[in-house]
Amino acid sequence: MIFIQRSAAPEILNLVGQVKIRAICEEYDQGKRTFESDSFDKKVYGHQTVKQALILMQHGKCCYCESKIKHICPGDVEHYRPKAEYRQQHNDAIQKPGYYWLAYTWDNLLLSCERCNRQYKKNLFPLLHPEKRAQCHKDDVCIETPLLINPTITDPKNHIGFRDEIPYPIDDSIYGKTTIKILGLDREALNESRRDKLAVLKLFVDIIKKAEASPNETALQQLAADARHFLLEAIKPNAEYTAMTEATLRKHLIQLFHDLEK
Ligand SMILES: [Zn+2]
């Protein structure tokens, strides 16, 4: 999970989305208290222009696990604050309504892989102080302290570190810990993908270290130059699992990492 700089809102949300929000808030004011998932217009919040904007903003990756969004697994437009219903904890009863007034709000939308969204996060949205939860559109969500890291607001690297390919909460951060758990960021399938990448990273790190120890070996220097090029690509935000790559390079190749950052 890496920090994502939010881009400008797609036009459809500013135009049609705003109208939809007003309509749903009016329904609430008239006494409606439950908005099922199908009460929301997916053609608007999940519009192609919204999805494209999210793909571009997130460098083609799941906002949570950093797996590439592929045509065979196109990803979900995901509501950070769940639109229809929510749960504080896994075994809690479902609470309604959800954050219906944020269903078409750009700042509440992200693109996630189906696994992170449908199998793990689902409608979980725990708060540090659940009693402060916004209950309707008249409440201010700014008083909430969500335990799930929003990568467009908080830099995940301050809360989630990596021991090799395995994520862990830095200094036992409750935000890191909850985020890893809710999203299953330590699930075996992800660990396996990161492990594969890590093996290649370590190979290149070794080459660079050997080259540094033998400055007169021309062939080795050439290999090290290629390795640096590979690592430079691997920490670009459009590469998969950049958070782990960055943590690995910081640990093993501090000087090289500083050079790459320049
Ligand atoms: Zn994911």
How would you summarize the topology of this molecule?
Blueprint: H1 11-29, H2 42-45, H3 48-57, E1 76-79, E2 109-112, H4 114-121, E3 160-163, E4 166-169, H5 174-183, H6 188-213, H7 218-234, H8 242-252, H9 254-261
Antiparallel strand pairs: 1-2, 3-4
Helix pairs in contact: 6-7, 6-8, 8-9
The site of zinc ion has 8 residues, from helix 4.
Oligomer: single chain
Distance between the termini: 22 Å
Write down how many β-strands occur, each being a DSSP E stretch of 2 or more residues: 4
Mean pLDDT: 93
Query: How large a portion of the residues is in β-strands, by DSSP E?
Result: 5-15%
The general outline is elongated
Strand order of the largest sheet: 1-2
**Which structural category do the helix and sheet elements fall into?**
mainly alpha
Report the uncertain regions: none
Radius of gyration: 21 Å
Please count the helical segments. Answer: 9
> Percent of residues in helical segments?
40-55%
Number of domains: 2
Bound molecules: zinc ion
* Biggest sheet architecture: 2 strands, antiparallel
Order of helices and strands: HHHEEHEEHHHHH
What tags apply to this protein structure?
single chain, 262 residues, mainly alpha, two-stranded antiparallel sheet, 6% strand, elongated
